[in-house]
């Protein structure tokens, strides 16, 4: 049985053949939605297998990706959640053994969120097929092409951050 993403791809292929109404922008948007759907499928699988919410997995990714110590306040801004929702998220992550709250500065009010090494390794193992798919795909592009893709995705993410949500 075909997944929703596969059914969407087949419908997209029927609409965008030679002479079809599909524009490059439409094709790009459809492919971005498909990729987002596939990544969401994996995120929901990880969340379900670890008793987490999909937002919790987004929080883990934010903690993993940050170059500076993540605080609950920065996590709230990154995820666009209320302080209460971030507290509940961090509580779930801590109970599940994924993060620790650490007070590392002289100011004991400052809390940093640290990804627990064993939990980080479990996430790496779970998402290894995603990393392998990315590496296989990346190998099909030369450095100049990859630079364009990265520039596009960076600009797209920057512009998406400016789009208000229904909640904000």
Q: What labels describe this entry?
A:
168 residues; mainly alpha
Describe the fold and architecture.
- By secondary structure, the chain is mainly alpha-helical.
- The chain is built from 8 helices and 2 strands; from the N terminus they run αααααββααα.
- It has helices at 4-15, 24-49, 54-65, 72-79, 83-95, 117-126, 128-138, 143-160, and strands at 99-102, 112-115.
- The chain has a two-stranded antiparallel sheet with strand order 1-2.
- It starts with a helix and ends in an 8-residue tail after the last helix.
- 10% of the residues are buried.
- The mean pLDDT is 87.
- How many helices in DSSP terms? 8
This entry's quaternary arrangement is: single chain
The SSE string, one letter per element, is: HHHHHEEHHH
Sequence of strands across the biggest β-sheet: 1-2
What structural class should be given to the helix and strand makeup? mainly alpha
Quick one: overall form?
globular
Low-confidence stretches: none
Helix content: 55-70%
* Mean pLDDT score: 87
């Amino acid at each position: 049985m075909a997944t929703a993403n596969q059914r969407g791809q087949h419908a997209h292929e029927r609409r965008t053949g030679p002479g079809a109404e599909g524009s490059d922008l439409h094709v790009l948007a459809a492919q971005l939605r498909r990729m987002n759907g596939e990544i969401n499928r994996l995120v929901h699988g990880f969340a379900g297998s670890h008793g987490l919410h999909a937002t919790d997995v987004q929080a883990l990714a934010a903690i993993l990706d940050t170059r500076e110590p993540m605080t609950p306040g920065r996590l709230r801004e990154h995820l666009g959640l209320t302080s209460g929702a971030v507290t509940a998220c961090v509580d779930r992550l801590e109970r599940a053994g994924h993060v620790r709250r650490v007070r590392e500065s002289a100011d004991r009010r400052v809390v940093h969120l640290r990804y627990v090494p064993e939990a980080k390794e479990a996430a790496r193992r779970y998402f290894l097929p995603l990393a392998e798919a990315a590496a296989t795909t990346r190998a099909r592009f030369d450095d100049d092409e990859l630079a364009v893709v990265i520039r596009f995705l960076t600009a797209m993410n920057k512009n998406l951050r400016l789009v208000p949500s229904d909640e904000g």
